[in-house]
Structures are given as structure tokens and as C-alpha cells.
Amino acid sequence: MKKMAFIDMEGVLIPELWKHFSTVLNIPELAITTREVADYKSLMKFRINLLKENNIPLKKLVGLIKEIDASPNAKEFLEHLKNNKKFEVKIISDCFYELLDPFFDQLNLPIDNAYCHNFEINSNGYIENVIYNRNKGKHEIIVDYQKKKVPLKNSIAIGDAFNDFTMLHLVDHGFLFQPSEEVSKNSPFYFHKVESYQEIIQYLTNNRVA
């Protein structure tokens, strides 16, 4: 059985989408992310209300997504994990299928290997609510694998924000990728803080996680 690599999308493999929306739409409050706010559900209620107040439907956001590319070398990093290090890559993201669709193609990731959320859209095309893939946190996905007796020895997890902490706790090797000062300051000492994909690859090689 391949080892598992549980990886976040925004801030790790792709840019922070809401920061892009904030800049293009000129709504500074949309730039707030889980690097600053730990309570994701409260953050999403705040974002949805902002979009409604500014009359921004989902199709507007989807159009803006087309302007964004995955992070440089992200695809090559994933291919290296899969082909050279023999990891099975699983995406665990608090983003939404409706926004991530173009990136699955860019990164050569099967959508079946992703655990994301969905938007609930009203008849006028505006985001009304969130249909959550899980209730408590990203760790729930890993716990499900544990319950199914899937071998997770030497598995890794990569995230960048507070909402990634719970999944990083459950693997042998947890990486914080380019964390903010606030996230870094409040993270457990045993999380590995890295600034590049190459640092992760080097760590896996040096520690023979292959």
C-alpha cells in the first residue's frame, strides 16, 4: 500500500483565492483567511455576507478563478511525491469544488482524490450557505482512513494555516508550508516549518521516507 500525502490546496499548491478576490473586487475584508482566523465556519459566514452586500454572484468568482495559475512547481512537486516517493496524494481543502475545478486539471489531480466543500446557491446565483464535507476538521478524513485500517505509516500532511493543525497532528510527518508569523508562533514544536517544496523533498530523502 502506498503511503499517503494529505495536502491542503490554498497557500500550498495554489495562491490564496480569497486574497485575489479581495484585490480584484476591491473588498479588503475578503483577504482575511484561516491564517488570521481559526474558526473557519465563522469566516465563511462573514465572506458570504460580504458577497451578498456587494452583489457578487458565484459566477463572478468562477470567472476570476480563470485568471489564476497554480503555484510555480506545484505540479512537479506532486509528480515527484507520486512517482519518486511513492505517495498516494489526497487533497484535504476547506475550499470549494466550484472554485477548485480548473486547478485539478492544472495539477493532474483526480477530483475523486479530493475532499472539499460545496456551496449552496440560491435561485439568483448567489452563495447562500456552505455544504460541509466534514463537521469538525480536516483530521476527520484521516480518522476515516484509520477506521478502515488503511496503513498510514510514514504518511505526511502539508498545510499552511490554523485549520490544518488537526490533520498534521495525525501523521508521522507534518509540514507547515510558508506559515504566517501568527500560525508559526502558535504551532506545535514538532511540526516541520518549510518555505519550499524542495525542503520537503530533502527532508523525506534525508529521513528515508520513501
UniProtKB/TrEMBL annotation:
E.C. no: 3.1.3.3
Which keywords annotate this record?
Amino-acid biosynthesis, Hydrolase, Magnesium, Metal-binding, Serine biosynthesis, Transferase
Q: Does the keyword Lipoprotein apply?
A: no
Pfam entry (one): Hydrolase_3
Q: In which pathway does it act?
A: Amino-acid biosynthesis; L-serine biosynthesis; L-serine from 3-phospho-D-glycerate: step 3/3
Q: Which reaction does it catalyse?
A: O-phospho-L-serine + H2O = L-serine + phosphate; O-phospho-D-serine + H2O = D-serine + phosphate
Tell whether NAD is among the UniProt keywords: no
Kindly list the residue ranges recorded as spanning the membrane.
none
Q: Provide the GO MF annotations for this entry.
A: L-phosphoserine phosphatase activity; magnesium ion binding; transferase activity
Swiss-Prot/TrEMBL cofactor(s) = Mg(2+)
Q: GO terms for biological process?
A: L-serine biosynthetic process
Q: What is this protein called?
A: phosphoserine phosphatase
UniProt source species: Acinetobacter cumulans
Lineage, broadest ranks: Bacteria, Pseudomonadati, Pseudomonadota, Gammaproteobacteria, Moraxellales
